[in-house]
Design goal:
Chain A: It is a multi-pass membrane protein. Chain A: One of its GO terms (cellular component) is plasma membrane. Chain A: Keywords: Cell membrane, Membrane, Transmembrane, Transmembrane helix, Transport. Chain A: Belongs to the binding-protein-dependent transport system permease family. The complex is a heterodimer. By secondary structure, chain A is mainly alpha-helical. Chain A is built from twelve helices and no strands. The longest helix of chain A is centred in the first third of the chain and has 37 residues. Chain A is globular, with a radius of gyration of 22 Å. The two termini of chain A are 26 Å apart. By secondary structure, chain B is α/β, with parallel strands linked by helices. Chain B has three domains: 235 residues, P-loop containing nucleotide triphosphate hydrolases (Rossmann fold, 3-Layer(aba) Sandwich); 70 residues, no CATH class; 316 residues, 3-Layer(aba) Sandwich (Rossmann fold), CATH 3.40.50.300. In chain B, α3 packs parallel to α6 and α6 packs parallel to α7. At the A-B interface, α9 and α10 of A face β18 and α14 of B.
Amino acid sequence: MDKETKTKIHLFFRRLFKRKLVMLAAILVLFFILTAIFAPLLTPYEPNKQDLTAILQKPSASHWLGTDEAGRDVLTRIFYGARTSLIIGVVSVLISAVAGVTLGLVSAYYGGLLNTVISRFIDVLMSLPSLMLALALGLVFGHSIGSLMIILGISTIPTYTRMMSAQVLSVKNQDYITAERVAGARNSRILISHILPNCFSPILVLLTSNIGMTILAESSLSFLGMGINPPTASWGAMVSAGCSKLLLNPVYGIAPGICVCLLVYGFNVLGDGLRDVLDPRLRGSL
Amino acid sequence: MEHFLEVKNLRVSFTGDIQKSIAVDDVSYYAEPGEVVCFVGESGSGKSVTQLAALQLLPVPPAVIEGGEVWLEGVNIMQYKADSPQMRAVRGGEVGMIFQEPMTSLNPVKTIGVQIMESVILHLKCSREKARERALELLGQVGIPDAAARLNDFPYQFSGGMRQRIMIAIALAASPKVIVADEPTTALDVTTQAQILDLLTSLAAKNNTALILITHNLGIVARYAQRIYVMYAGKIVEEGPAEKIFGHTAHPYTKGLLQAVPRLDDQNRRLVPIDGIGPSPGKRLTGCQFRNRCRYSSEKCCEEQALREIGGGQRSACIWSYEELKEQEKEGAEDERKETEEFGENVLEVKDLRVTYPLRKGILNRKAGELTIIDGISFSIRKGETLGLVGESGCGKTTTAKAILKLLEGTSGRVLLNGRDILPLREKEFRSQRKNIQMIFQDPFSSLDPRKPVEELVGEPLLIHKLVKDRAEYDRRVDELFCLVGLEPSMKNRVAHEFSGGQRQRVGIARALAAAPDIIICDEPVSALDVSIQAQIINLLEDLQQRLKLTFLFIAHDLSVVKHISHRVAVMYLGNIVEISDSEELYAKARHPYTKALLNAVPIPDPAIEQERERRMLPGEVPSVMKRPAGCCFCDRCELSDERCRKEKPELVWDGKKHGTACFQIT
């Protein structure tokens, strides 16, 4: 790494963390990532090992957040649940973003028949409620983590495509795109190095807020029993199971819910911060 | 108070997140009934803010009126709160206002009748019938034909010029004693501009109203103003009667403006731009604000300069007297523009170029007809030559440029670039040829990718057309291009928004030059820039043409600019070229009635000349291409037109080889 890139990276982080809230969000997200990675080191318990002698205990010194109906340590399952949530959240958002952005970019830029075909396909996807779609696809693909990622990914493609094509339509008529054509640039160059970067700000915000939404969707599916197969720990499934045991161990249902909130919030704020830093028009004001 | 309207020591500041900036600094002025007072200055000089502040129309915060008095008929209206009943009675009642954008200053969902009557009822407190009568009377006064029928029309049914007339009607509703017009014609065409300003000044004279006209156009000032205030960086730097300001210019900034603006009656003069850019409101200098751009500045300029009386009602804020400036001026003699009259072969030849737009109908989108936008135009440009293409908005200038660059569908005719017809070429075949024909855009803000460092933008054509062998050569060429257009190569890693408007346009020029094109199409390259910056860019283009033997197709609506830069000029009207000739000859001996009217409508920044000029007003407005008259496109506005003009379309008739005119009535 040469010196120039080093100062660039340094500058990037200094701008990003100039706002304390973004810093807080970054710490939050990093915290969950670290707990997901180091889950086995953080707890003496096995996530799936049942202990029927200690079911639904209230928080205590040995079980900080108490235990669930099978006597499993709640804190341990939250640590392991972070793995499921993060992987599903990030990967399925990447799947839908890559597919959705590409479709939107291509259809809006070239227009014509291609646009018609892609738009109608997106209309069809959109007309199906995404949770229903996910349920239906779940029956086809099964309930492994992999298929859940694909299912959740497919169901959010339309948002990206719509937003991207709206962006492209406004950007492609700007003078600087005409300037590219006058300069003799190929379509591929115009698309990738000029249109895409100028359309990406709202996509970035959508991306990070969708990570949160997907984590919630996964939770909902698990809550409905159509998500991750038990006994794999998942925050959604824990909220679902815990909410009927609120009187016995209130922390069991509430704690994973708070985790979902914090992680979603962290991703959203981080996304806003990233967008602002990556926009050169805001240089100097941050 | 001794004057009808008098503003004293007005100070306005804006509070931002980071700093406080002073927008109006100790400004005093007055106006008398029946007088036309002009405020002139470049963008950001505070001329609009001054007027808005006097009427307490500025949003508070961020604006803060820090001090000052506004006396109207012996009452200090500054004592009233901004939204008090007294202040509301002043605005629209005693003081009428007209804004720059007629397109946005009328409410689109209400009929114009309702909008005029609203203002009448509000200030005259009369019945609806009375208000309606008054509205009709007002519309008649501002020259809207068939007023009774049009009262129920919505703003979108009127053209820009008509809307500005309606705005004037609303401003006049309560018979105000003062009218403030903020750049009322900047968004309009030059022939419409003349109509509107003549209307406004004659109405003001008739009703004995004081007219305060804010403008950046020195020609307008010379034609209409009785007294002038020149503003720079929030201060009045010079004031006085019009003939004094133009004939006995005492402040270097006013002098600079006058030398920077191209004039119709110029002969081969080189423009003298004002160096640098004005200070931003947040970073005011100490002492004279103009000193860092001034040719005459000395150490004494760092001290605060007040306006000083210099006789005849003229006041200037310069430490030097008129004579002292005159003395210093002799040392730096004006340099003449060097001319080469030798041109090479034809680089670009356009033959019978037509652009049509298909009109589709029905659910099957069947082609029902064609709308002709460019109606068969022909011209050629020789190597090293500048051809000016001039005309009012909607005449097809930009469409012509886009057709030549093959950015449009529906073109026919022939466009020969270096002798080869490019129109039939497919985009893939033409792409490699694009390096030969480049473009400079009008808006330096939207024509540069906001996300890329400018170095990548300038260097991009080099990479696309593989004009450089390696990274070192690329870097060298990019630096060269930056130097060529007068930018520091060290600035090349910045993004577009970190440059000023003039600098961005330089980046645009550098990019157009990168591939060493045979011809550059300049589409209104200076119309978005301030006068002093405009002169810098025009000089740059002229210098580059000299050094690199460039060929330009220069498109603009400003006749003075086109005349200044072009060797030959083609005048367009409704998709036709009506006259084409050598630039000097065209301006001296225009033949086509439209060219004559157009030239007549352009004010020259010199009151002495303006008074002598014969005024001929062109009636009506440019029709839309949907309603192009049969025969000569200009026949329905032309006073010479007869039966033949309405039936047949005139072709260009050549007098000698150089001067072509498309008109039956000239022999």
